[in-house]
Amino acid sequence: MTTEAPKLPTGFGRLWTAQTVSSLGDGVTHAALPLLALTLTRDPMALAVVTAAGTLPWLLFGVLGGALVDRWDRRRTMWVTDAARAALLAVPAAAAALDALSVPLLAALAFLLGLGGLFFDTAATAYLPDLLGRDPVLLERANSRLRGSQTAASGFAGPPAGSALLALGRAVPLLADALSFALSALLVRSLAAAPRPVPQTRESLLRQARAGASYVMRDQLLLGLALRPAVGNVAFLAVETVLALFAHDRLGIGTFGFGLLLTAEATGGLLGTGIASFLGRRLGTGTALTCTAAVEGLAVLGLAAAPNPYVAGLALAVCGAGMGATMVLGPSLRQAIVPAHLMGRVASTSRMLAMCAAPFGSFLGGWLASTYDVRTPLFAAAGLLLTMTAVTATMTTNRRIEAALQTAAPADASDRRESSELVHAGAV
Fold first, then answer.
1. Highest averaged pLDDT of the listed ranges 38-47, 185-194, 205-214, 388-397
2. Number of alpha helices (DSSP H) and beta strands (DSSP E) in the chain
3. Contact 277/144 with Cβ under 8 angstroms?
4. 418 versus 312: which is more confidently predicted?
5. Is 97 exposed, middle or buried (0-12, 13-18, 19+ CB in 10 A)?
6. How many CB atoms lie within 10 A of CB 104?
7. CA distance linking residue 10 with residue 427, whole number of Å
8. How far apart are CA 147 and CA 10, in angstroms?
9. Do the domains at 8-192+413-428 and 204-396 have one common CATH topology?
10. What single-letter DSSP state applies at residue 145?
């Protein structure tokens, strides 16, 4: 006699649609914003300022943002944030229509959109366990769908759409992104409210933020889950920094071929999100995470040694698959074991570590390529990924994960009962 697998609630469908629509708008802006900046200046430093402005909120306010999300109603945080981002985009759209755009305005836009992304993404990460009753199986399935649709929307559909819309007018892609945020806000607004408010405290915001960061640093399993994307970002940014040069000089491919290489990586990422739950069931989440991390390192090693574009494309596809699976399994596990009142701070701390690590990877890649050879950053990245795999393997074992899940279950029993209304809200 087989037991029917639990179904995702209709409420998740609305959240999924909202995030997919918003990701499509993000992809449009991701392509259009640097192109808009390019119409204003050819100064590389000015262009870099616009690009870097979008990452600054995570570096400056990551943990504090998580503490605020843990104080606020998470559904309200999401829809208000997206409504604010929709209104915000009206300003540069009007400036573009009036031919009054400037680099400082675009940098401010990138910063504020990034700040909105901090609050929305953290709140969505914290809200999902409430919506799904902290069920590990449902969390893996939901994160697989979310990651897959976000990759497709922001990686495949959004950038070409952004370029095409820009050809219609400088304000058009900004208005399209504003519409995506408005639709997302309406969909999230229709979701059920959180099952209970987060316990209030008289502790200062800074003390709460520090408590969330300490919770990650003191827990071996959570620290291992946080180290993977942090070290991975160092490695992957080192590769990304020189990838175009490597493709041109060593593989002999032009602009179109380079686009195909990136598409191969994104395609692998979609495959990885699709098989993540299967890997978790067959191998155990801990073993699956170790295997996907090892696959990423070996794939980058294969890329460094690739004799032609075909091998390089295959290596990037395999690497993308490992990354896609990791980005489903890791967050799903974190959402299942972290107490609800700490979820925002734990998620933002992990994300901040990854964001802070990225600039080091970019600098490392550029320095190694200029000092030694364009392949050197790729070999170094592979070595870094494989070393990280060995170090964190003992921190994220199946045994440690099972113990964490068993410990979390009794503490969250009341949360699960209170979440039942959320899980079945709107079900048909």
1. 388-397
2. 17, 0
3. yes
4. 312
5. middle
6. 12
7. 5
8. 18
9. yes
10. H
Question: Does residue 295 contact residue 262 with C-beta atoms inside 8 Å?
Answer: no
**CATH ID of 204-396, from 1.10.443.10, 1.20.1250.20, 3.30.420.40, 3.30.200.20:** 1.20.1250.20
Which of 1.10.730.10, 1.20.1250.20, 2.170.270.10, 3.40.50.300 is the CATH number of 8-192+413-428?
Answer: 1.20.1250.20
Residue 63 has φ and ψ, to the nearest 5°, of: -70, -40
Report the alpha-carbon distance of residue 122 to residue 71 in Å, rounded: 12
Residue 4 has pLDDT above 90, yes or no: no
pTM of the model: 0.78
Residue 136 has pLDDT above 90, yes or no: no
Cα four-point dihedral sign 49, 50, 51, 52 = positive
> Tokens at residue 185, please?
């806000």
Per the document, the length of the chain is 428
User: Is there a contact between 114 and 56 (Cβ–Cβ < 8 Å)?
Assistant: yes
Q: Token match 């959109």: residue?
A: 113
Locate 198 and state its tokens.
């987060």
Q: Which amino acid is at 194?
A: A
- Quick check: 202 and 44 in contact, CB under 8 A? no
Closest CA to 293 of 327, 337, 317, 264: 327
Question: At a CB cut-off of 8 Å and minimum separation 6, what does 54 contact?
Answer: 110, 111, 113, 114
For residues 313 and 308, what is the distance between their CA atoms, to the nearest angstrom? 9
Kindly tell me the burial class for residue 256, based on how many C-beta atoms sit within 10 Å of its own C-beta (0-12, 13-18, 19 or more).
Answer: exposed
Mean pLDDT of 287-297: 96
Contact 386, 294 (CB under 8 A): yes
What is the radius of gyration, based on Cα positions, of the chain? 21
In sequence order, what are the residues at sequence separation of 6 or more whose Cβ sits closer than 8 angstroms to the Cβ of residue 406? none
Longest dimension (CA), the chain: 68
Confirm if 174 and 371 have CB atoms less than 8 A apart. Answer: no
Question: Is 426 in contact with 10 (CB distance < 8 Å)?
Answer: yes
Return the closest-CA partner of residue 37 out of 56, 50, 55, 52.
50
